[in-house]
Design a protein that fits this description.
Layout: H1 3-7, E1 18-20, E2 30-33, E3 36-40, E4 43-48, E5 51-54, E6 61-70, E7 73-82, E8 86-89, E9 99-103, H2 113-119, H3 125-128, E10 135-137, E11 140-141, H4 143-154, H5 160-167, E12 176-177, E13 180-181, E14 186-197, E15 205-215, E16 220-232, E17 235-244, E18 246-247, H6 248-251, E19 262-268, E20 280-291, E21 295-296, E22 299-300, H7 301-304, E23 307-310, E24 317-322, E25 329-334, E26 339-343, E27 349-353, E28 358-366, E29 369-377
Antiparallel strand pairs: 1-20, 2-5, 3-4, 6-7, 8-9, 9-20, 10-19, 11-12, 13-19, 14-17, 14-20, 15-16, 15-19, 16-18, 21-22, 23-24, 24-27, 25-26, 25-28, 28-29
């Protein structure tokens, strides 16, 4: 047996991916929110009605403190308007009895038409005419801080490197609180199913997950990884999707690896510059899968930055990047120890094609020793 496989022997006995619980990830449980009314003389006037939303999922609200005249009486509105349009979906769901339906909206969709007709002239036209995406998250949002991020995501964000570069400058504490505790687990990928429709076509929904860790030195919650899909276009039937998680250090070797202690998942009804009133994203059966942090000779590869592989888990292909020295040879083995590919790399990046689903062992022989990694191909 080769030295490489002796070093990697422990990989064969490791457990398969396990689930990290997402509270209400199949949207079976729902909660009720109260509407808001004011009393004019002795008569109630509804500003907005009661609503339902999936339990354990958060949505932004917009503070309103306005005075308007109604029937000769000055009426003060002092409330937090829920900025979302959500409903249960029961037809043909993937798991359980319900899915969640997020729809993009205008402010006029949320407020009593009588009241909106009165206060419309007092609203800034950019707000009155804007189409807002419904955003649900596993953490509590500050909408005023979060809106610039939404606009950046919908303005042509093309790859995960750009996203992480943008998020790296943010203090998560300024716009999000809470999230899914990871308790030492590595959030390798998020899976689920979706349907999408937009009135005029050209819109699309999105999913974003952001990993963070509290920095005890700066007292800020620092973004340390992310994954996203902003291309969830027209789909009349439930369609599976999968989003891989990328640590910041994997894409930027100058960034030290930090393990996320919390993960926030975001769902967007519109994630494009063509947001349309009435665009609908239906999501069901969200599952967050734990994986293993990459290992090199028993040490996390992200700590020494000698070797990175992405995505991992892979889907037929992956890219290997060497950051210190080029290996003399790169060998790919099955988990049973059969050599299936050998390459002598000529540059710092190497694209590998994986022949089948399963677990593979990558062995890189260098002058300094043997580097090993487990690759999971789905």
């Amino acid at each position: 047996m080769s030295l490489c496989l002796l070093v990697s022997l422990g990989a064969k006995a490791q457990n398969q991916d396990e689930l990290i619980p997402i509270p209400n990830g199949s949207f079976e449980n729902w909660s009720n929110g109260n509407g808001y009314s004011v009393t004019i003389l002795v008569l109630p006037l509804e500003i907005y009605g009661s609503y339902t939303y999936p339990t354990n999922w958060n949505f932004p609200s917009f503070p309103i403190d306005e005075t308007f005249s109604y029937m000769g009486v000055n009426v003060n509105l002092n409330t937090n308007l829920p900025l979302m349009k959500v409903s249960k979906e029961s037809n043909g769901v993937v798991d359980g009895n319900h899915a969640v339906n997020l729809q993009s909206f205008k402010i006029s969709d949320l407020i009593n038409p009588t009241v909106y007709a009165i206060i419309q002239s007092q609203l800034d036209s950019s707000i009155a005419n804007a189409v807002f995406p419904t955003v649900l998250s596993t953490g509590e949002l500050d909408i005023m801080e979060f809106l610039p991020l939404i606009y950046s995501l919908s303005g042509g964000m093309s790859d995960i490197s750009q996203l992480l570069e943008m998020l790296d400058e943010l203090d998560m504490n300024t716009f999000i609180h809470g999230g899914i505790p990871l308790n030492g687990s590595y959030p390798a990928r998020l899976t689920g199913s979706y349907k999408y429709s937009s009135p005029n076509g050209g819109d699309n929904g999105g999913v974003l997950m952001v990993g963070s860790r509290y920095n005890t030195t700066t007292h800020k919650r620092q973004v340390v990884g992310a994954g996203f899909s902003m291309g969830m276009g027209e789909a009349s039937n439930f369609t599976p999707f999968e989003v891989d998680y990328f640590p910041l250090a994997l894409l930027n070797p100058s960034s030290p690896y930090m393990e996320a202690d919390s993960l926030v998942i975001f769902l967007f009804s519109s994630a494009s510059v063509n947001a349309q009133q009435g665009s609908s994203l239906i999501v069901d059966n969200l599952q967050l899968w734990a994986g293993e942090a990459p290992i090199i000779d028993g040490i996390s590869q992200l700590n020494d930055n000698q070797l990175s592989i992405y995505p991992n888990p892979a889907h037929g292909q992956c890219v290997v990047r060497f950051t210190n020295e080029l290996p003399q040879s790169v060998k790919l083995y099955t988990i049973e120890g059969k050599l299936i590919q050998e390459v002598i790399p000529s540059s710092e990046t190497l694209q590998l094609s994986l022949p089948s689903k399963g677990i593979f062992i990558l062995c890189c022989e260098t002058e300094s020793g043997v580097l090993t990694r487990k690759i999971v191909n789905r």
